[in-house]
Amino acid sequence: MTSVSPTEPITVRVDLGARSYDILIGRGLLASAGERIAALMPGGRLAIITDATVARLHLPTLTASLDAAGVGSTVMTVPAGEQSKCFAEYQRLCDEVLAARLERGDAVLAFGGGVVGDLAGFVAASVRRGMSFIQIPTTLLSQVDSSVGGKTGINSRHGKNLIGAFHQPDLVLADTALLDTLSEREFRAGYAEVAKYGLLGDAAFFDWLEQNWQDIFAGGPAREEAVARSCAAKAATVSADERESGQRALLNLGHTFGHALESAVDYANERLVHGEGVAIGMALAHEFSARLGLVDDAVVARVVAHLQEVGLPVRIGQIPGQMPPAGTLLDIIAQDKKVSRGALTFILTRGIGQAFVEKGVDPAAVRDFLEEKLRS
Amino acid sequence: MTSVSPTEPITVRVDLGARSYDILIGRGLLASAGERIAALMPGGRLAIITDATVARLHLPTLTASLDAAGVGSTVMTVPAGEQSKCFAEYQRLCDEVLAARLERGDAVLAFGGGVVGDLAGFVAASVRRGMSFIQIPTTLLSQVDSSVGGKTGINSRHGKNLIGAFHQPDLVLADTALLDTLSEREFRAGYAEVAKYGLLGDAAFFDWLEQNWQDIFAGGPAREEAVARSCAAKAATVSADERESGQRALLNLGHTFGHALESAVDYANERLVHGEGVAIGMALAHEFSARLGLVDDAVVARVVAHLQEVGLPVRIGQIPGQMPPAGTLLDIIAQDKKVSRGALTFILTRGIGQAFVEKGVDPAAVRDFLEEKLRS
After folding, report:
1. Using one digit for the tens of pLDDT, what is the confidence trace for B182-206?
2. Which of A166, A214, A336, B111 is least surrounded, with the fewest CB atoms within 10 Å of its CB?
3. Complex ipTM, two decimals?
4. SS3 of A154, please?
C-alpha cells in the first residue's frame, strides 16, 4: 500500500437522472475506498463479492481501508471464471447476502472483473428487490466496459447474459494500479475495447492512442486518461439510450464478428478471449466496410497496423486450431442478431470515428467475405 | 363462454410515467383477451405461466381467445401453492421462456393468483433483462392487490418475497367472472383487502361496502366497482411512491399484526390464509388505536361488525390450534419491521378512512395489548 501514492482521481459522471453516479479513476484509489464508501452511505454495510484470484492479490488492501473507515463488510468468494455466472452461484449469493442480514440501504460491492461485476450486480438488483451497488473493477476490460451501463446478469444453458437486470451502481472506483497484476494478454485484450471507443466515434482519441499506447501499457498517467475517456464515451452513449433501443448498438463495433468467433471456439479462453475476438472483429468490420466501398483501404491499414502494434490478433487465421466454415459462422451471426426480412444488422464505418448502424446487410455478401477471410 | 355477456370494462390507469399501464375490469373479459393483447403488441408471442387449478378451469377460454386473434403462445404450468415461489421454479421457467425463443418484445402472461403473478413477474423482469408482462389475475386478492404495484419475487429460506424485482405490467385484465369459481373462504379473504382500502383512506368507500357487500359476493355489478375502486386506491398510492419510501406503507394497515399471526402458524393455510390474518390484524389495529385514545370505541365496533358480517375472523382466538405467547408475537413483529431506537412502526388510525404511519410505538404497550387479546 505504501508504494502507491494516490493522486486526485479523475471523475466521470454517468448522467441517468435519479440513477446518476460517479466513476472515479486513479492510481492507488483502492486504499481510499473505505472513506469514500463511508461518505456515500453512512452506517451502511457491505457484501463484498470477489473471486479467489482477486481476493489473494488485493482483498487485504480493500478490507484494511474499510476497517479503518468503520465500514462493516462480509466477503463472499466465487471461483474465478465464466462458469460462476450461473443460477447456482446466484442463488447461493442471494441467500448469503440475506444471511448476513443486509438491508436495502446496505450495498453489494463487486470486486473483480466482468464476471464478478455481472453476477454481483444481478444479486444487488434482486435481493430485497434492489440494494445499493458499488463496483471496484479490477481488469481493464471491466473498467472501461462492463462497469458502465448497468447491465448485470448470468448465463443460461441457452446462451450468455440471458438472465439479468438493468441495475445502475451508486459508485464505481477504477484503480488503475490494480491493472499492474494482469497478464500482458489480459491487459491487451481490454485495450481492444479502449481502441473501439476511438474507432466508433472519436478520431482524435484514436490519434492519441496511437501516440500514447506504450504509456498506457506501462502504467503511466496516460492509463488513467485512457480509462477516463473510454468511460466517458460509453457513459455518453448509455445516457442517451439506457435500455439499448438505438445508438447504444454502436458499442457493438467489432462484436458481431467477434462473438461469432468466440462462439465458434466454444468460448475456450486458451484459444480466444473476448477482447481478442473484438480486435479481429474490428479489423473485419473495417475490411468489410472497405469491401462495400464505404471506407478507404488506407484507413483499414492504419486500424489494423495499430492493433497489430499493441500485439492484438487481426486475422481469423491467428486463432489456434480449426475454425468452422463460413456458413457456420454466418448461422451463428444470424442466430445472434435476429435476421430481419433476410437482412443482417452490422456496425460498419465510413472512417476512423465514423461507425454507424447498417440494418440492410446482405447475408450472401457476409458469407463470401468470411470465406475469403478463412482462406487468408 | 357463451353464458357470459361481456360489457364494456372499467379502466383504471396506473400512472407511472413511461411505465404507465391500464387495468381493465369486467365480467367476461377473458374471452376478449386475445384481441386486446394483439392490439397491444402486434406480432408478439406469449409465455403463459399458470397453475394446475387455473389451467383446468379457465385455460381453454384464454387459449381459444388467443388463437382466434392469432396470438402465438406456449403454456408453462407450476404446482398450485406458495411452494412454487422458489429458485428452482424460477430457473426452470426462465429456461423454458428462452427455449420457446421469446424475444424482449414478446410477453410473459401471468394467469393465476398472487403466487403465479409474483413468480411470472420476476421471470418477465429477468429474461433478457426485462420482457413485456401481462397479468390476468384470477383471485380477488390478486385482482385488488398483487396485480397493482409492480412487486414481483420469490421466497428465500430467509423469508418471503426477499428475492425479486420491481417490474410493471403492460396490461392487467381483471375478469370478475373468474372469481365465481373461488371457494367462499378464498373470496372472503380477498375481500379483507377490499375493505382495507376503505378503512385506510376512503370512508365513503367503506360506507358503500357496508351497503353493497352482498352484491359483491354474489357477483353483481358492485363486484366490478369494488375491484375498480380498490385498484384505483392502490394505484394512486403506488404512483405517489413507487419504490415504497413513504406513504405506500399505509397499504400495510392490518398487515403488521396479520403477518405476525401468519408467521406464528407457519403459514399453514388450513389454519389461516393471508386475508384472514389481515382481517384480524385490521381489527387489532383499530382496537390498539382505541387503546391509545386515537379513535372512539364506536368506530372500532363498526369496523369489527362489518368484518364479522361478511364472515371474516376478527379475534386471535378464532384461529384454530395453539398460539404462541405475546412475547413471541412481539419478537416476530420486531424482526419483520426493524426496530428503530427501540420503537416500532405501526399503521394506526384516527377514524374510518384516517389511517396514518406511527413510528414511535412502544413495544411494551404492544405486548400488554397482545397478552390481553390472547386471553380474550
Report:
1. 999 999 999 999 999 999 999 999 9
2. A214
3. 0.92
4. strand
